[in-house]
Design a protein that fits this description.
This protein is an alpha+beta fold. It folds into two domains: about 10-65, Arc Repressor Mutant, subunit A (Orthogonal Bundle), CATH 1.10.10; about 80-155, Glutaredoxin (3-Layer(aba) Sandwich). The protein is about 40% helix and about 10% strand. The protein is built from seven helices and four strands. The chain has helices at about 10-15, 25-40, 45-55, 55-65, 85-90, 95-105, 150-155, and strands at about 80-85, 115-120, 135, 140. The protein has a four-stranded mixed sheet, covered by helices on one side. Strand 3 (about 135) and strand 4 form a beta hairpin. Helix 1 (about 10-15) packs antiparallel against helix 2 (about 25-40), helix 2 packs antiparallel against helix 3 and helix 3 (about 45-55) crosses helix 4. Bound molecules: FE2/S2 (inorganic) cluster. FE2/S2 (inorganic) cluster binds near residues 83, 87 and 131.
Length: about 160
């Protein structure tokens, strides 16, 4: 699902104003602040940071794509990772992925329009005894039975 996003320019400026103009050494810090504020790096934030610090836009993008902590795609407030490792797969993890697709309307790598959830799939997370496993905001949900994931996500 493609999301039309709106970026709050005042929020961007509020962050930029805490950093001196033209100080290229603040690039990573400023991008980190934008990531924290928006949960991802909308293109507007990268351009604004590059302008503010007077660094080439290509440099800002190369930093933004180099660090795994930065996301260039919209990310929801809650990240839902479904393990698709072998143990989880044979215990029905693909049904969990389908439950999420049906219930939230998003597949792996996608974010709901209200920015509440992003779905991801991951390889074995080392908790095979709990399969199938879903990790929601770093919290492990064990033995996720078909048809139960949405309720478990709501519970937090
Ligand atoms: S396969 Fe999912 S935790 Fe190991």
């Amino acid at each position: 699902m493609t999301i039309a996003h709106q970026v709050d320019r005042e929020k961007i400026d509020g962050i930029l104003n805490r950093y001196p103009h033209g100080e290229a050494s603040s690039l990573v810090h400023l991008l980190q602040e934008m990531q924290a504020a928006f949960n991802w790096l909308p293109p507007e934030t990268i351009r604004a940071v590059a302008d503010h610090l007077a660094v080439p836009l290509t440099k800002a993008y190369s930093v933004a794509t180099f660090y795994k902590a930065f996301s260039l795609r919209p990310r929801g407030r809650k990240i839902v990772k479904v393990c698709l490792g072998t143990s989880c797969h044979i215990r029905g993890a693909s049904i969990v992925v389908e439950d999420i697709r049906q219930g939230l309307g998003i597949g792996p790598g996608e974010t709901t329009a209200d920015m509440a959830y992003t779905a991801e799939v991951v390889n074995c997370v080392g908790a095979c005894a709990l399969a199938p496993v879903v990790i929601a905001d770093e919290k492990y949900l064990a033995d996720v039975k078909p048809g139960t994931i949405l309720k478990r996500l709501e519970k937090g």
